[in-house]
TrEMBL record:
Protein name: Trm112 family protein
Organism: Methanosalsum natronophilum
InterPro entries to which the protein is assigned, alphabetical: Trm112-like
Domain of life: Archaea
One Pfam family linked to the record: Trm112p
Length: 59
């Protein structure tokens, strides 16, 4: 996932702001990490550079 994507992402549940927590990164993108919404306390995983932005009940 490109870091620039964070500029346009919002929480799909509450539309709140998101925070990126990077666990693994290469030269061009975030490979593994977590995108968190502090407003509704939901975490969205990033695996192999792909963010899973589905609400928890739909994963």
């Amino acid at each position: 996932m490109k870091r620039e994507l964070m500029d346009i992402l919002a929480c799909p549940v509450c539309k709140g702001d998101l925070v990126l927590n990077v666990m693994e990164e290469d030269d061009t993108e975030v490979v593994k990490g977590i995108i968190s919404c502090n407003a509704c306390n939901i975490d969205y995983p990033i695996d192999d550079g792909i963010p899973n932005m589905l609400p928890p009940e739909n994963r």
